[in-house]
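Sanity check

After download, print the first record. It should look like this:
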Amino acid sequence: MAYAHGLEPCSERIGGSSPLSPTMDKLISLSNARAKFPEIVRKVSTTLDRVVITVNGQPKATLVNSEELEALEETAEVLSIPGAKDSILEGLRQAKKGKGVALSDLE
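Expected structure tokens:
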């Protein structure tokens, strides 16, 4: 199927993403990306879509919204702290049980 904008939805998804998912990878060849770069940047900057640029049909680079990249980097930084993931999961378990301290009680 050809798309008017020259981008094709990625056929392989990680984590079961569906075509209706707010973050949807799109594939575009390097030559098409060059020709449509301003349009691609405009689209990525206003959505959570990711554009995967291919060379000879192989993914080589991904263009993402700068705010999304910042959020991904912050998440990676937090999760790199030893024990952080376990603490977060324990906090979620406690919250589901109604345990813990309300934020308003901390002030």
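If your output differs, re-run the checksum step. Summary of this record's structure: The chain is about 45% helix and 20% strand.
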